[in-house]
Amino acid sequence: MISRVRVWLNRTYAENVFFMDQLRRNPSDRAVEIHATHGDADSPVLAAADTAELEPEGLSPAGYVEYALAQCARRGIDVFVPRLHQAAIVAHRAEFEAAGTALLAPTPEAVAVFEDKATAYEAVQSVGVPVPPWWRVRTAEELVAAVEELEELGDTACFKPAAGAGGVGFRVITRTPFSLVHLNGFPSPHVPLDLVVEAIERADGPVDWLVMPRLKEPEVSVDCLTGPDNRVRMAVGRTKNGRRRGFTLHEQWLEPARLIAGGFGLHYLSNIQFRMYGDRPVLMDVNTRPAGGLHQLSQCGVNAPWAAVKLALGEDPGEVQPPFLGQDYAVVSGPRPVRPVSLPRQRTAEAEPLLPAVPAPAAEADASADIADGAAATARA
Q1: Residue 277: Cβ-neighbour burial (10 angstroms; 0-12, 13-18, 19+)
Q2: What's the CA angle centered on 295, arms 162 and 42, to 5 degrees?
Q3: pLDDT score of 135 more than 90
Q4: What CA–CA distance (Å, rounded) separates 130 from 126?
Q5: With contact defined as beta carbons under 8 Å apart, do 5 and 30 qualify?
Q6: Of 35, 56, 57, 59, which Cα lies nearest the Cα of 46?
């Protein structure tokens, strides 16, 4: 009898409820039990898991590794998909293997290269992957100089943290003075240069940003599955152009993604993002983890999470090719359950006297009615 597979996802994105769904609906019809941990009790991944726990707060990376090893031993974890403290965890791969747990994560060297975007750009340039012009800035003077150079090239400047994920901290520089234009409608990523300079000068220490041109769409995220032998088993592009999403197998996107995934040890699932600079694709970002939108490949008949788990278990899935490309689509939100909680009591003591159970005297009632009528007239006005 084939035993069930026990998979753990730690503090992952809410969208990975779909990752979990795909593991359970695997084409091998293998029983999968999912353990999830998170710092947010209302994360839907906790409700979607078979077993779940809140993670302890305040652990150092080393302390988190000890916690993770204990979880794997206590829960009998076969495959661990780490997101939080990934760098510290992969540095202890041998200890997890000794506990019977395979890490679905890249090599320590790959994580180190791609957790810093400047280091990543230098590394991929060395193997021939095109990147946009970029400047690493730490002061207001460096920021202004980089912006002026880009504007001389006819580009719009933007910046983002040198380390980070998910578009956090991304802003587009504008020369337009701050006005009501910036306050009307929905919040915008555009920020006036003078306000950014002022914020840097008032900060307690230097910033660590990359300044580059704002790249054009389409944005193409290539989901890759790579084995410990550095052979890429899967590379499928997901395209984004405004609201419209789709899929591509065009080599202008896939060839550089394979070069990065196989050449730098991005084992198991990674996501490599490109945009256009002028008339050519350039690298935008590299994620050393499964993308939140990975489940969208199911529209192409591909179950990438299960293929990755098989590979981590030593069961090579072979070449994973989509049997077809799904039609273009849009992404919409939808409800997912969260774990039940006990609502706190709304009233623990009678802080104020309750209203009397008998009618007020006539004079008091008339005065109350006049006040109520006046309030209603004010509201209508």
Answers
A1: buried
A2: 75
A3: yes
A4: 9
A5: yes
A6: 35
Q: pLDDT tens digits, residue range 166-215? A: 678 999 999 998 888 888 888 889 999 999 999 999 999 999 999 999 99
Write down the pLDDT at residue 63. 98
Q: What are the tens digits of pLDDT across the range 281-307?
A: 999 999 999 999 999 999 999 999 999
Q: pTM of the prediction? A: 0.87
The residue behind tokens 């280091």 is 119
Convert the pLDDT of each residue in 79-94 to its tens digit: 999 999 999 999 999 9
- Checking if the pLDDT of 326 tops 60, the result is yes
Residue corresponding to tokens 């993670």: 55
Nearest alpha-carbon partner for 304 in 328, 330, 322: 322
Q: Which residues contact 307 (CB under 8 A, 6 or more apart)?
A: 225, 233, 234, 317, 320
Q: How far, in Å, are 7, 231, 359, 373, 379 from residue 366 at the CA level? A: 69, 86, 12, 11, 20
Nearest to residue 232, comparing CAs of 149, 172, 304, 171?
304
Query: Exposed, middle or buried: residue 245 (CB in 10 Å: 0-12, 13-18, 19+)?
Result: buried
Using DSSP's 3-state secondary structure scheme, residue 180 falls into: helix
* Residue 309 neighbours by CB under 8 Å, 6+ apart: 5, 7, 23, 26, 32, 79, 104
Overall size of the chain counted in residues: 381
343 or 146: which leads in pLDDT: 146
Distance, CA of 189 to CA of 192 (rounded, Å)? 10
pLDDT digits (tens, 9 = 90+) for 331-350: 999 999 999 875 454 444 44
Distance of CA 122 to the CA centre of its chain: 23
Q: What ranges make up the beta strands (E) of the chain?
A: 5-10, 32-38, 51-54, 79-81, 102-103, 135-137, 157-161, 171-174, 190-192, 209-213, 216-226, 232-241, 244-248, 268-277, 280-287
End-to-end CA distance of the chain: 76
Residue with tokens 């707060």: 57
